[in-house]
Amino acid sequence: MANGIAKGKDSGYVVTKIDNKAKPSKRKGVCGKRVKLCREIAREVCGLSPYERRILDMIKTGGSAADKRVYKFAKKRLGSHKRALVKREDIKAINAAQRAKAAGL
Hints:
Blueprint: H1 33-46, H2 50-61, H3 66-78, H4 81-104
């Protein structure tokens, strides 16, 4: 935000800003269409893994500290805090979808 004056606030030569193209590295971690489709098909065909079924069972049986127990179990299996939280929300979404499907029938 230069104003063409050598001294003071916003000093410097006035130039037009050139927007740089976004680097491919900025896309890191973003799921593509093809990968998303493949994962959906794999989940549909294979279903849940044994530890995921156990998490689902923990959520269904519930209790006051179910969230914490699910988190601790997932963290033990997956190795990190962030992965455990994501897995917990993922399995909760699956549980909600199953309940909605059962209610719709």
